[in-house]
Amino acid sequence: MIMNDQGRRRVIFHIDVNSAFLSWEAVYRIRHLGGKDDLRRQLSAVGGDMAMRHGIILAKSVPAKKYHIKTGETIVEARQKCPDLILVPPNYGLYERCSRAFMDILRQYSPAVEQYSIDEAFVDMTGTQTLWGSPLEAAERIRRQIREELGFTVNVGIAENKLLAKMASDFEKPDKVHTLWNDEIEEKMWPLPVEELFFVGKATKKKLEKIGIRTIGELAHSDPELLRAHMKKHGEAVWSFANGMDISVVQSETPANKGYGNSTTIAFDVTDASTAKLVLLALAETVGARLREAGVCAEVIAIGIKTHDLKHTGHQMTLSGGTNITTEIHRCACRLFDQLWNGIAIRHLGLYTGRVKGGLNIRQIDMFDDTDYEKLGRRDAAIDQIRRRFGIDSIKRASFLHSSIDHMSGGISREKRTVDYDKIEIK
Predict the structure, then answer these.
(1) Helix (H) or strand (E) holding 358
(2) In the annotation, is 209 catalytic?
(3) What Cα–Cα distance (Å) separates residue 218 from each residue in 144, 208, 214, 234?
(4) Which of 18, 26, 131, 410 holds its CA 20 to 30 A away from the CA of 240?
(5) In terms of Cα–Cα distance, which of 391, 396, 395, 387 is closest to 417?
């Protein structure tokens, strides 16, 4: 049994929205658009725009699962399995609003809420029994409140640490509460296939199967030295997880980013350097703005290229001092691009930063560089202020005026942030 500093058993909840994107879309259509059909009960899925080459399944309904439709597969693959599949476009603006409402309810029950992703969170419920009753009673109360007030369902996993709570929430779905206390590991977790353990992906599964390990229980009872020999530190980690070991705490404050980056899938194959560098400029705009908003500078600049045949390459450089200036980030990205690109048509570009530092940025003097970085910094600050006040399209570089490339690319693209429901038949 895991105790906290006051000698009480730790109680951790993991709360996960069932088919989040599809559920949120279904609830919005029913509650706000007068829809009668519930997407959650139909052969339906949320999918990207094939014309923009974002054609993958992002979420699917329970009926769609019976056709073995999987998150992350292409729309083409999904329609081959189920030609009658109803596809709805992604709407990240809606998802963000639903996520905030979801987190607001969780914070009514405990101040220690760690948002793990847009649709899941850990909650430390240790010591709240006098307020909300037993862990099961509290979990049922949260589950009911979310369903009644927000209209969607969640699974709640209850355990003594975050790992086991997350495992428990993945048991039977939807709209369920499950426990996985330490004394329940042998019965509830060890019989499961090893790939259902957190941190065990396809590659790890294959390595474990090669040494005869197919269940979580077999992994838990294996020799840690054998695992270390085959998988190094990762072997130790999955052995610990199989035995229910996890000492991480619920972090209500988001840790500082170690790096900032953005990437974009381009709607057409890029075959010339000038167009690719314009895409990198659009990425530099968004990455630079994020660095400045966080009040930090980056000492490492990196780019990634995915070609039309889905092969990926990357390259990076270390600066003599940190920067958050858009022009400088773009100049470094272009230099890396010239060194890396081999002329093959490009499908996807990414721009990333690392070794991020806050505080006063001291720039090393270069007698061969007469760039006025202070002036560039003031210009970027003025542009940021204008965009915050009047919107990101209120000011843009002239090079984007007659281009199909979004002048601030990366992250969640614009077509995924809103949906024009006037163009969609809501049944």
Answers:
(1) strand 346-358
(2) no
(3) 37, 10, 7, 16
(4) 18
(5) 391
